[in-house]
Design a protein that fits this description.
The complex is a heterodimer. Chain A is mainly α. In chain A, 70% of the residues lie in helices and 7% in strands. In chain A, β1 and β2 form a beta hairpin. In chain A, α3 packs antiparallel against α8, α4 packs across α6 and α4 runs parallel beside α8. Chain B is of the alpha+beta class. The chains are: A mainly alpha, B alpha+beta. The interface between A and B is large, with 58 and 63 residues.
């Protein structure tokens, strides 16, 4: 009942399971204001969708969710297009590098390992940091002190680099190298993990580039659209692993979920949100890590084609 | 025209059958030569009807069995084995079989070991244990070719058969063929949704007292039809255009969402 055949994943799935997963992750992403790809890709893999299809399809789905996100920021003119362009330059290079790395690793039969390992490492680090900061802030608020982080130095090593450019909307005069480097790094992550990369990009823009927070989200979404779009096309060309039917189901669930999530999110305090998100991220990382360390039930796996 | 042909072949058959000294023969037909997999399906079933033209109709002393095999799309399949490296389980060594069928189903009137000897089954490639997988090549963790012992080959071949069986791609139906009366028989074989597209062969064997007396084969096309087939073909034949389409589609969907939920 309610089974649908996914043409690219080449397997039947339950429509309501996929819609429900899209809804649940959409709810969390609306609540926390994050992309949700870092939760969706592991969930799809747990469901039995081939990891390569999960990553490429999630990149495609992220295009849709970022478009709906950027429109609001565009109207408030909270997008720094020049900064976005620099990040995008790096992002394009990263996307190419990442997708070619992905297909090479897929050929040698280690793509599942690469995806799992990158998730464990990145989610582990980000989750611990968020949980730590969130819990500290919560304790500080309870103790009656201000939970806001203090910005000490206004100048860091970023300001010593050459090729300085003026970014009017961000009110910055900095080197073009850090935004390109950040874009490159995030582009690779988009290609091999199917995430939007916002969880790396946003902190990097705030703490490394010292961009004003009001333009950070809009600008990162702006560049995410193009990078995830490019990654979708490249994965399609290299691996034929983008499942539009799966993407449609995910984004239908996600759009509805995000609306409810955003409403709940407004009722929770920032510190609580951060601690909770940190906890979820850490749980996903632990689950993936656990799967890597535990002896698998079946040591053997099949793939069509010749081993190199 | 076709009626005329049928009459002709019928008289021809009569003529041949009257020629006397000849063994039992098979006459078969598939219910469908083309199988379509649609989104509302999780698989399908094919029916094969046939009849035995007996040499001696009244001879009931001999056991007659029918075995139906559907298989095809032989190609290389790599089996990888995980091993623990630095605390984590990673794909370590691999064996590639160069002619493993993508799908293999065998249906019979009785369990195969009771129909024919192990040697007969093995030579003909009947039954999961006797599927022809082709030449095996071993690969070490770095991808270099390695020596392959018979025991290693068996370990990996068993793993391949077990996994394919779990995926429903290699299957046995020991009571899948039933006789309707003395000479008419019917075979039912289920085809799961994950069967790859392509040309397969349906082979029917007539086994009498453990000896194969006749074999007939018919082609069988398995095709994913409808929207899935269209999407699959689009993605594999024009991947660049498909990727661009996916992005445009997502852009439109994202934009539509902002209109629907505009505050």
């Amino acid at each position: 009942m309610f089974q649908i055949y996914l043409p690219i994943a080449e397997m039947p799935v339950n429509v309501f399971l996929i819609l429900g997963m899209g809804g649940a992750v959409g709810f969390l992403s609306g609540m926390f204001g994050v992309g949700g790809g870092f939760l969706m890709t592991p969930l799809l893999i747990f469901t039995g969708i081939p990891p390569a299809v999960a990553v490429a399809t999630q990149a495609n789905q992220t295009v849709a969710s970022s478009i709906s996100g950027v429109v609001a920021h565009w109207r408030r003119s909270a997008v720094d297009f020049k900064m976005g362009g620099m990040l995008l330059t790096g992002g394009v290079m990263g996307a190419f590098a990442g997708v070619y790395l992905f297909s090479y690793v897929r050929e040698i039969g280690q793509v599942d390992l690469m995806i799992s390992l990158s998730y464990v490492v990145f989610l582990g680090i980000i989750g611990s940091l968020m949980l730590n900061e969130g819990v500290r802030a919560l304790l500080a608020v309870r103790g009656g002190r201000s939970g806001a982080p203090t910005h000490r130095a206004h100048h860091n090593w970023v300001h010593g680099l050459p090729f300085k450019m003026r970014f009017r909307r961000s009110k910055l005069y900095i080197s073009a190298i850090p935004p390109i480097a950040i874009g490159l790094f995030v582009g690779i992550l988009v290609a091999i993990m199917g995430v939007s990369g916002g969880f790396i990009m946003v902190p990097a823009m705030i703490y490394m580039l010292r961009m004003p927070t009001n333009v950070v989200i809009g600008t990162s979404l702006f560049q995410i659209i193009f990078v995830t779009g490019l990654v979708t096309v490249l994965h399609s060309v290299e691996n034929q692993s983008v499942d539009v039917l799966l993407a449609l189901l995910l984004l239908s669930g996600g759009v509805v979920g995000a609306q409810f999530g955003a409403r709940v999110g407004q009722k929770l305090r920032g510190e609580q949100l951060r601690a909770l998100l940190g906890f979820i991220v850490l749980a996903v990382a632990l689950r993936l890590g656990f799967d890597l360390v535990m002896e698998p039930a079946d040591l053997f796996s099949l793939s069509t084609g010749i081993a190199p | 025209m076709s009626t005329l042909f049928r009459i002709l072949s019928f008289t021809l058959a009569l003529f041949i059958s009257s020629v006397g000294a000849r063994a039992d023969q098979l006459v078969t037909d598939l219910s469908r030569h083309q199988i379509s997999i649609r989104s509302n399906f999780t698989g399908t079933e094919i029916l094969l009807f046939g009849a035995i033209e007996a040499e001696n109709r009244d001879d009931t002393t001999r056991a007659r069995d029918v075995v139906v095999v559907i298989s095809g799309l032989e190609g290389p399949v790599t089996v990888r084995r995980k091993d623990r490296v630095a605390g984590i389980w990673i794909n370590y060594d691999a064996v590639t079989f160069d002619r493993a069928p993508a799908f293999y189903a065998v249906a019979s009137t009785r369990p195969l070991p009771r129909i024919a000897s192990r040697d007969t089954l093995s030579v003909t490639g009947l039954g999961l244990a006797h599927i022809v997988l082709g030449r095996a090549t071993g690969n070490g963790p770095t991808g270099s070719e390695t020596e392959l012992s018979a025991a290693q080959r068996d370990t990996f071949a068993t793993a391949l058969l077990r996994t394919k069986e779990q995926q429903g791609l290699y299957r046995t139906e020991p009571n899948g063929v039933s006789f309707l009366g003395r000479s008419l028989f019917r075979a039912t074989i289920s085809i799961p949704a994950n069967v790859p597209n392509g040309l397969y062969t349906a082979k029917v064997y007539l086994i009498s007292d453990g000896i194969i007396v006749d074999a007939v084969s018919t082609p069988l096309y398995i095709v994913k039809s409808g929207i899935e087939r269209a999407i699959y073909a689009f993605a594999h034949e024009k991947p660049l255009l498909y990727g661009i389409f996916a992005v445009v589609f997502a852009t439109f969907a994202g934009w539509a969402a902002t209109l629907i939920f505009k505050d």
